[in-house]
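Regression check, GDL case 457:
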Amino acid sequence: MTPSRQFLSGVVEGFYGRPWTASQRTELFAWMRAWGLNTYLYAPKDDLKHRHLWRACYSEHEASELGALIRACRAAGITFVYALAPGLDPDFASPAGIAALEEKAGQLLRLGCTCFAALFDDIVASPASGLLDTGAAVVGPQVAFAHHLLGLQRHRDPAAELLFCPTPYCGRMAGPPTESTYLRQLGAALDPVIQVLWTGPEIISERIHPEDVAEVAAVLRRKPLIWDNLFANDYDLRRLYLGPYSGRPAALRDTVAGVLCNPNCEFAANFVPLRTFAAWATSPDYEATIAARAAWREWQPRWQIAGSFPGDSSLIPLTALELVGDCFHLPHLQGPRSSAWLEDFAWLCQTAPALWDGRLDRFVATGREVIDVFEKLTLLHDRELLHTFYRHLWELKEEAALLLGYVEWLRTGKPGGSYSSAEHRAGTFCGGLAAEFQRLLPMDRSGRFHHPTGASP
Ligand code: GDL
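Current build output:
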């Protein structure tokens, strides 16, 4: 195991989709500085020169923007880490690949970057089994590349650090770590100073407990550095995650080298996720619900809405904001009010209207509140904030209106009939082509898919 070092805590901009803008990153650094986070890993999958065209150096204009970013990050007291993801290139470790690495790393070193990462995630198609147990042929060139990069850094700074993302980077892909040829070879060959990234039991891990990382730490011969995809939404852009950082007990901090969060693609959606994550990373008595409430309160001043008269403005009430956070919560968990809303609907559908009690009122009140929050949001002065949430809340308020109409029809309608709404024309379904396929092959609650006819293929 490596000797104990500073616990790394911060953000990895490591998602697929539009990278954040310079001003969003500047805002991010201000948040991170204020909240005590120390590391920013630059790894936007869709910066061509980070991954697909990793060998290409940045143009003069791009280099000046990147240099400014590095300086802004460092001025905020945050370590800037530039990630190279060369693994899609079959010859990344050939002499030509190494020459390209020298040139590319040279450019970044000149721009002031002193910390690097070599990422080898998502470079081979996942087999149906999900297991990615690649062997020596894969590990060797990756380690050679990383060691060469470390050497280039050390030339400048003998204390330089390097991060490394393996090809199987979570429990599901690697299988039991002690049985993974790849991980065993990596643990043995990789310079102990290099930190290895790991997303936990899953790519999107609902929970990461100390026992979930003990075995991989032993095989890698170092504590893993968690790349946390809890709030990432690039794999399902109809979702947003605004819930508090959860599922990681405080004891995890002693068993990992650090945690870097890869959050929502929509920058503005990340205030509560990152604020609560920072609270988790920096305080021993973190409590998710309390941290979420404090984060919404801290963010509320940004939610100013126009009043009926020019110059008249007010803040969206905290309860309304918390309802937004509840409706767009966490990947594996609805917020408490959303869960109750869902349960109430299921209950109302199964229960004769004569037996409905206060649950109808609660159901209707939540639906109306959702519609009302959307109306309020459209009055936001901060239009960037509005448009971050617009599509998501639009879909939900449309659904809320449908449900309210449906429940009213149940209450007053004749049994055995069917309901139609003026907003829903025959043959139009939300979600387009992908949703049509999802209706043909739905996933069950345990994450399995069954042959549509019911018979085995
Ligand atoms: C991944 C990718 C990441 C992506 C995330 C969520 C890692 C190491 N790589 O597998 O770029 O944003 O899933 O979709 O997590």
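Comparison notes: The mean pLDDT is 94. The CA atoms of residues 172 and 202 lie 6 Å apart. No diff flagged against the previous build.
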